[in-house]
Amino acid sequence: MIENKEISALFHLIDDPDEEVYSTVSDKLISFGKDIIPNLEDLWENTTNEEIQERIESLIHKLHFRDLTEDFIHWKNNDGSLLQGAILIARYHYPEMQTTQVLQEIEKLRRNIWLELNRYLTPLEQITVFTSILYNYYKQQGVEIAYEHPEDFLINKTLETKKGNAISNGIIYLILCEILDIPVKAINLPRQFILAHFDPQFEMIESVAHNSEKILFYIDPLNGQIYSHKDVENYFKRISVPPTNSYFKPMDNKRVIQFLLEELSKCFDDDRNRYKMQELLSLVTLLDE
């Protein structure tokens, strides 16, 4: 903990009913950075006033969020991996989380899949092996998107419980493909989070009439089911939307993380938590700046 007379004086003003005074005190305390968190936690434990406790919790949250924002700037500026981006989002909800367990689980999955792959397998055979290990051997389950369950969107809880929605399962799938150098990318199909296995030479393919021509087949990350071009054509007919080129363009890591932030923010669309929604959407904007 930081020993500082100024901090002690500020703590005596933390319950000031004047919002302007409290705002000044709050800004000053936040300026000390995350090193002041142990002081705030100690103050929380030694007060019975619920209003003061709520103010302390708010201050701690702001300090964590400021720290997280700086980490997102670093991630963006250094073309961070999808794994690191997903971990940063999980830290929004679990600021004290240790990443070791996440990294160990990903490595365990990577190794199990890698041991079963070989260069003689066709792309479809590769994905069949990959999917079987993830969903049958490892028992990863898919659940429908439910905005009342924010943990379903977070990589640490998805790995821990072996249960995730299409987005969190899909991000784990993409992370493993990124590590194993398998050309699977998320694409921007309307109302879906779907993965596509691109032709291994798709970046070298000359201009084609439609981006879908670079795709071999599609993968539903909810359960690993494989879809053909005909299945996707029928989906567009069913929803009465023309299959424009942009829907088949691969999403980069930044866009996938932005999409996860946007969807997670919908979990906090109520009066009590709307500030969380706004914070998450501010990170989306930050990644575009």
Word description of this protein:
The chain is of the alpha+beta class and 289 residues long. The chain folds into 2 domains: 73 residues, no CATH class; 207 residues, no CATH class. The chain has 12 helices and 6 strands. The strands form 2 sheets. A 4-stranded antiparallel β-sheet has the order 3-4-5-6. Strands 1-2 form a two-stranded parallel ribbon. Helix 4 runs parallel beside helix 12, helix 5 runs parallel beside helix 11 and helix 11 packs antiparallel against helix 12. It is elongated. The mean pLDDT is 91.
How much of the sequence is in beta strands? 5-15%
Radius of gyration (CA) equals 23 Å
Q: How many separate helices?
A: 12
Number of domains: 2
**Helix coverage percent:** 55-70%
Poorly predicted sequence stretches spanning 5 or more consecutive residues = none
Structural class: alpha+beta
What pattern of helices and strands is seen along the backbone?
HHHHHHHEHEHEEEEHHH
Mean of pLDDT: 91
Q: List the strand order in the largest sheet.
A: 3-4-5-6
